Amino acid sequence: MARSDAQRITMDIELKMPDLATTGSAMRVVRWLVEVGQHVNRGDPILEIETDKATMELEAVASGRLKEMHLRPNDEVSVGQIVAMLESEDGGPAAVRDTRSSSDAKPASMGGMFAKNRAASRSPVSDPVEQAIALSPVQRAVARRMVESKQSAPHFYLQTSANAEPIVARRAATAAAWDAFFVHAAAKALARFDRMRYRYDSDRLRPSESDAIGVAVDHEGELFVIPVVAPAGKSPEAISGEIRSAVEKVRSGDPDARRLNPTNLTVTNLGSTGVETFTAIVNPPEASILAIGKVAAVAAVESGKVIAQHRVSLTLSVDHRVVSGKYAAEFLQSIVQELESL
């Protein structure tokens, strides 16, 4: 026999923040996907949370009416924290265990919510009073690492240029990504200058356990480093395919693609923005970072004649605790030789 409205049993359910395995990194509320008073079904996405690795959708673990929101956009949240209260009717999990009405029953805890990755479009959250821009967890992590690097690692910088005609010709034939050629050349040079693979650690130099080279990628104002594993044994075209695949995963919010992985050296390229040359901050614990400017046709002298030649600027930033200026200069020249012999 059907029960009347007066006989309906309700129960308040606490929705708690689940453990997203972010290794202690900060989590921030991006936005609510539902409103107070709105009915949601089990599995419906109700909230977006941002970590330093990805943006996640949190889903309701029961059906009912969203009764209370305990967090606002831009609030930080920790594992186990109550984020919302759900009022479940009749067949909800809590109602099965406890048939008291919501007026005389303690809230039931569902122990968390479901979470899934989401490639969300994110924009800076502004303080309406101070117009302060809140940094995302990824941006905060990058800021901490760059300050640590600049303050603790004594940088020095080496600048040169390379004949880019071989790169331009090969790229025209294969459509490989620009970064792939510099990763390939740096990997070949690292095989001959193994000291560049060391890092400074407590008055000791320790070899890197990785054989990867990183590629810096900017996505919606956030910086990620894509690792290309064992690039010395791969062609620029194969490396290009890996880079493009990894970039797509970063854009889709894949947490594995956004996770920080150890690399020997990072390649950062601003050539597509028209920047001719720039210096970059070493990405710790690496000992160096290679900055690439734009490839452009310039007047060059060859065999006593002035010709038009595509050239590219290279700037190597180096941790002076790991290698000397002469050693780093020879390493940079080796990269140039690899680029010009493609």
Strand order of the largest sheet: 13-20-19-18-16-17
Taken as a percent bin, the fraction of beta residues is 25-35%
Using the coordinates above, name the CATH class of the largest domain.
Alpha Beta
Secondary-structure-derived class = alpha+beta
Could you name the CATH topology of the largest domain? Chloramphenicol Acetyltransferase
- Count of distinct strands: 20
Average pLDDT level: 85
Major beta-sheet overview: 6 strands, mixed
Termini gap: 82 Å
CATH homologous superfamily heading of the largest domain: Chloramphenicol acetyltransferase-like domain
| Element order: H for helix, E for strand | EEEEEEEEHEEEEHEHHEEEEHHEEEH
**What are the low-pLDDT stretches, counting only 5+ consecutive residues below 50?**
91-106, 119-127
Radius of gyration: 27 Å
CATH architecture annotation of the largest domain: 2-Layer Sandwich
Offer a few descriptive terms.
Chloramphenicol Acetyltransferase; alpha+beta; OB fold (Dihydrolipoamide Acetyltransferase, E2P); 342 residues; 20 strands; six-stranded mixed β-sheet; five-stranded mixed β-sheet; elongated; 7 helices
Describe, in plain words, how this protein is organized in 3D:
With 342 residues, this protein is of the alpha+beta class. It has two domains: 5-134, OB fold (Dihydrolipoamide Acetyltransferase, E2P) (Beta Barrel), CATH 2.40.50.100; 139-340, 2-Layer Sandwich (Chloramphenicol Acetyltransferase), CATH 3.30.559.10. Helices cover 24% and strands 35% of the residues. The chain has seven helices and 20 strands. The protein has helices at residues 93-97, 137-152, 165-174, 178-192, 236-252, 255-258, 325-340, and strands spanning 10-16, 27-32, 39-40, 45-50, 55-59, 64-69, 76-77, 82-89, 108-109, 114-118, 125-126, 133-134, 155-163, 198-201, 204-207, 213-219, 222-228, 266-269, 288-302, 305-319. The strands form five sheets. Strands 13-20-19-18-16-17 form a six-stranded mixed sheet, with helices on both faces. Helix 4 (178-192) packs across helix 5 (236-252) and helix 4 (178-192) packs across helix 7 (325-340). The longest helix has 17 residues, at 236-252. The radius of gyration is 27 Å and the shape is elongated. The chain starts with 9 loop residues before the first strand and ends with a helix.
